[in-house]
Amino acid sequence: MSAEKVNTNYEKLDPIIKTLPEKPGIYQYFDENGKIIYIGKAKNLKKRVTSYFTKAHEYTGRIRLLVKRISDIQTMVVDSETDALLLENNLIKKYQPRYNVQLKDDKTYPWICIKNEPFPRVFSTRNLVRDGSEYFGPYASVRMMNTLLDLIRQLYPLRTCNYNLTDENINKGKFKVCLEYHLGNCKSPCEGLQSKAEYDQTINHIRKIIKGNINAVIKEFKSIMMDYADKREFEKAQQIKNKLDILTRFQSKSTVVSSNINNVEVYSLIDDKNSGYVNFLKIVNGAIIQTHTIELKRKLDESAEKLLSIAITEFRQRFDSDAKEIIVPFEPEEIPTNDIEITIPQKGDKKHLLELSERNAKYYRFEKEKRSELVDPDRHKKRIVEQIRKDLGMKESPVRIECFDNSNFQGDYPVSAMVHFKNAQPLKKEYRHYNIKTVVGPDDYASMEEVIRRRYKRLLDEEKPLPQLIIIDGGKGQLNAAYKKLKELGLDQKISIIGIAKRLEEIYKPGDPVPMYLDKTSESLKVIQRMRDEAHRFGITHHRKRLQKGTIKTGLTEIKGIGETTATELLSHFKSLKRIKQAGEDEIAKVIGPAKAKLITEHFSGEKEQNT
């Protein structure tokens, strides 16, 4: 397909495309209303933008639709691919174009602030003020942040007032101690009862704890405790020991792997067809100090590598990361910095961390689906039904689906089974068995014709609801036989029909010699496979009963003195008529007694003499 056919504005766009620079940067596509509909980045702007028009015939429907709507193109040149990646991420978050991956996370997360002031306060905030204060976070889990702040308050008395504690103001005696001092929560630097050096040492400890470097603080506390003990100041030593115990308990709850793993980030991706769920873990000294999960909604069939790349860029920007190593399940498309080590672990502690991250992503997805089901219990079913419609190219959503499977035993006892799903769930009261009546011998195609005719003629006669989709367990032959009967009944335009072949799970449609292959992870294929397997199970159960009944009647119950109860006991024990014939009289007698055993062995020995 030519560029002119894909985009009617190509004559206007062609001069823009031809004059684009061959440099790294970002490109923005606008629609006819001047709205940004897509933002992308490129190592070479001219090559990348040109490819949208020269390779349009290779694209999926959604990308072709994007290209069709482009009315204007704007670009921005930057120094490197890394700059382009970061700029792309920022612009996508700002403008949220229709055809870009959608980041399903619009929350504002809190930070821990160490205020830029004399005797700094330590508190949580959602507003970053660029006044030289230190901000740590953001914390996706408010509970984790509050736990950290509670730990700090237990360990260190800090001021909470907003006084301007300059040396001049303190020396002039402008402030008086408050209730916090009397409660032991503050050492009153406002009246000069705590030195700036001591307070700054406390802030230095707090800074280390927030960064996850708890071992360094524990080491300092131990040194101070030993000094107090050497001076025989045991009360002060006990106070430090109490703080050590608090820190140790906090550390033990956080540690998940070897403490040798330091300043490392873990990213995992759980990939669905329409979304990717990416979990992020920040590891310092073997402890998880940050974790968060986001959902990325696909818009243009982006690869898993692309989604992982977008998530890494987003997290490293959001959490102001400086980690030099990232642990990932596979190589991302690109990362926002060059000086970083990428690890794809196969075993050991890093592999365990990746598995932990994956479990968090799965749990996030599970919880999201559960919440959606609470709001709309049928939402999940509706989504799957709609996905089947899209994947199979149907006009109507397949709320009701019926699947057929045939069985026979060496041409004898042919039966067929039909299972019925409503909203992608089994509706067992609508399951049906069929004994084939008009077909002689092993003719699977004729059997399929008979069953389809009987099923849908009856639905028409009784004016009952028709399914929107029929699934035939078999390839083109069985499908064509079923479709033939649908046409005769005038239903070929009212009901969609497909066949599924077992070997490669090919999907066939009437009149199309080329099979369709659905993604093995797709929910549509899973529903089709489940129906096929359910029809097979349902049919085999009925076939075995009929086969067993026929075998009893023709093989055993014709022996004088042997009834159905005795025959059933023998078949349950020996499993087949052939094994009964091969068994000795003593062996049979153990099951049904010597008298009946003699009747059976004499009967079958007589058959052998006649055959010879």
Description:
- The chain is an alpha+beta fold.
- It is flat and about 120 Å long.
- Helix content is 47%, strand content 18%.
- It starts with a helix and ends with a helix.
- The protein has 21 helices and 20 strands.
- Strands 13, 14, 15, 16, 17, 18, 19 and 20 form an 8-stranded mixed beta sheet that branches. It has a 6-stranded mixed beta sheet with strand order 4-10-9-8-11-12.
- The mean pLDDT is 81.
- A hairpin with a 5-residue loop joins strand 1 and strand 2.
- It has 5 domains: 3-100, GIY-YIG endonuclease (3-Layer(aba) Sandwich), CATH 3.40.1440.10; 111-254, no CATH class; 264-373, no CATH class; 388-544, UvrC, RNAse H endonuclease domain (Nucleotidyltransferase, domain 5), CATH 3.30.420; 557-611, Orthogonal Bundle (DNA polymerase, domain 1), CATH 1.10.150.
